[in-house]
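Re: the pair you flagged

First of the two:
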Amino acid sequence: MQAKAEYMARLLKEKENLRALPNTFQFKHAVRLVDEEIAKIRESMERMTEINEERTDRAETTTASEVQIHQEATTDKPLQAASGKKVFLQEKIFVPVNEYPNYNFVGRILGPRGMTAKQLEEESGCRIMIRGRGSTREGSSSRQTIYNDNMKEELHILVQCEDFEERAKEKIKRAVECIRYMLIPPPEGEDELKRKQLMELSIINGTYRPTIASRLALRNRSLLPAINFGQNGMENAVRGMNNLPIFANGSNEGDRRSTFYDPR
């Protein structure tokens, strides 16, 4: 298990390095292959963890809510058929910073090295960006003056999608529903997303040790109910847009703070 955890950490680092390259290189196939290998290793770690855990422990810790999350994540919901012309849609979800001034919403959405937001992008087919006050480091770039109008807005999540109209609406809807749910701080000790992020952080740091909690985090990998995007689903995500505020993929050189957040 330790060897697999170390291999996973190397894969995550390699993916980060690929995404940090300028857009002109366009190593799409390399990123795809690394993503497939990461998914395969996660599956393998899940199987090994389940074998090592006793069934009684599994039964005691699997609550009704966890079972429901797992069932929702494995339900294959078909997407609308491609028809008509492609449209560009976007929606803002404002972060409840006034209600929870000390809560790290940015870190919760991004996850370690932006992995949570990247996963949401990949599963929804949408572009996920964090904008508004608090989305960039103050005074870190002279280019920030260009975005003064954007900085006047409250902190928010911007979801964008380009696809055939009905498909785009469905993708936006599912991504927004998931983000709204993520913006509700859960009770202490009941945050499955945080457990998953801490597990991913331990893998990155090379300190991962299999536990019951990590097994559950591995099981509930999906952020969204399964969705049939078709062969071109991921190509419909909006890519390469020039925006200074935080991107999930950390590709903008103006502000790199999105590449790592400690969920603790």
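Second of the two:
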Amino acid sequence: MSAPTGPAGIAPESLLPLQQYQQQRAQQRAQAIAHRRQRSLPLGPAMWLQFEDEASVRYQIQEMLLAERIVARDAVQHTIEHYAHLLGDAQQWRATLFIGLPEPARRARELPLLSEAAQHVYVGCGAGPRIVAEANEDLADRHRGRPSAVHFLRFALPAQLRDALSAGEGAVLGCAHPAYAWQRQLPLPLLHSLCADLHSGTPQ
């Protein structure tokens, strides 16, 4: 029987021991920040999307293990599985959406509406239909009616869209909520990285 793995085949044995990770943490953090910067972009003035991949998920797992001093194999495996929902595969992209409203008064006023708008984020490619992301699938209420500044999105990409991307079509990211109607092109470096995710991932 093979050893259990988590997202993208992340096995407990593939993670750095706590002491070794702590020694390398500054370097790991700098690399993670640079990597995440390459895979993130704003959508309008108040939303920011971070497209996740194995490297970003692995970093979050290592940070959690260090913060909680987790060393037991079962507990490490549980932590890996806790982050599984963040990672896409050959047919889908995953992203963490952040709503940035630093002023308390503005946050109290606008967060409910923007949290609702997070349910209407989409990607589009060529003449094909928009693909609206599924939001917060790991939560029973999906944050509907319960405002949050963080949302977890899954873009299920049909074969037609994946084929168009493989053929070199550009793609857009947008929000279809009338109170936050924004759209922008996915920058080519990010799009190329996301397409590479599809080619390297395994369908779930």
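Confidence is low (pLDDT under 50) at residues 1-6.

-B.
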